[in-house]
Amino acid sequence: MKSESKSKRLTTPVKVSGRKRLVFRCLLVFIGLVAGLILAEISIRIFDIKPQSLHGKTYLRAQADAATFYECYSSNPNGEFQPLPDTSLGEWKLTTSGLPPTELALSALKQTPWCIQDQRSDQGLRDRHYSARPPPGKIRMAMVGDSFVRGEGVAVERSLPKQLEALLGPDKYEVLNVGFVSYATEEETKMIQEISAKWKVDHFLLVFIPNDVRLTTALLDRQEYINDLINIRDEQLGEHNNKRWYYHGSRVAQLIGSVFEMRQITRETAQWYLDSYDPAINAKGLGLMAENFHTLATLPGCRVAVVLYPFLFELEQGYPLAPIHARVKKMAEEAGLPVLDLAPAFIGNKTSSLQVHPSDHHPNSRAHAIAAQAINEWLRKDLPEFLDPSAAGQAPAKTGH
Fold this sequence. Notes:
alpha/beta, Rossmann fold, six-stranded antiparallel sheet, five-stranded parallel sheet, 13 helices, globular
C-alpha cells in the first residue's frame, strides 16, 4: 500500500497556482521583448540605420553675381526643380538654411542636387523690369508679402503674382511681385507706401500669413525654429536631438524617439502660433498690426485688399490655425479693408501634395494655382471695382464697419 501511495504521488501533476502561471508568462514575454530589442539593435547597427534626415534645403550663390542665388533640395518630388548650375567656374558659396546659416563645403551639394533659381531684377524685385508708369490701358497691381509671394521653391513664372496675372489677363493687368523673405506686416505696409509712389501703383494685394505679427521677447524665446510649419531645419533638429538621452544610447530608441519628438515639436509650434495672436500674450503685436491695417485703409489714392494665405499644415480634415485667420480677418475688416481667406480653398487637399518639398513647406506651383484661382474669382465677383480701370486713383472702398 505504501509503495502504491508513493507511486500515485510521483505520477500526479503538481498544481501550479494562477499567480505563478501569470508571472511565468510575463517573464517569457519580457525575455522575448528584450531579445527582440537586442536583435533589432544589432541589425540597425549592422546596416547603419539612423533617424531620417530630411536634408534641409541649402542656398548656393556665385560670388560674382549678387543678384542671383539657388535654393537647393535633396530630391525633386513635384518635378519642378532643375539640375544645379555649373559650379566648376568661379567662386561659389554654399550655406545651410539654419538660423543662423552655416557655410558648407561645395562637396555637400551632392546631398541637394536639385534647385530653383531666384534672381533679382535691376529694380530689386523677383520680376521683370517695370517702367515708371503702366502702359496705357493697363491696370498695375502689386502683390506684397513675404516668401509666399516671392515664390520660394517655385520658378518665378509659377509664383502667385504671375499666375494671378495670367488669369486676369496680361494684356489688361500687370501684377508686380513685391515679395521679400521674412517681411512682416509692418515692413509690408512701408513697402506699399514706397511702391505706390515709385511705380504709380494704385491697387495692392497684401498677402498675409500667420508669421506676420510682431512678437514679444517671451514668444521669441519659446520658438527654436526647428520646424516653423514652413521649413524643417535639420541642423537645428540635430542640435535639439543631441540633448535627448536616447540619442546617446540605443539606435532603436533614436528611431522611435525621433518620430514622437517631431510630432511634439509640431504640436508645440502650432500652439505657439495660436498664442502669438492671443491678446493676453501679445497685445502689443496685435495693436501694431491693427495700426498697420488702418494705415493701409486710409492711404490716399490706393486700394488695398488683404489675402490670408494659410500654412500648408494638416489641411486634410481642417486647419488648426483657423482662429488666427478669423482674428486677422476681423481686424482688417474693422480697419476698412476687404479680406479674402484662402484657407477654405485648400481644406480637404492632401497637405503634402501642395508643398515644395518634405523639408520645405512653402506652397508649390499647384498650391499657388489654387490660390490664384480663388483670388481671381473673388476680385471678379466681390470686388469688381478693384479691377475697374476707371477706379484707379480713387479712395479705397470701406467695408466691415
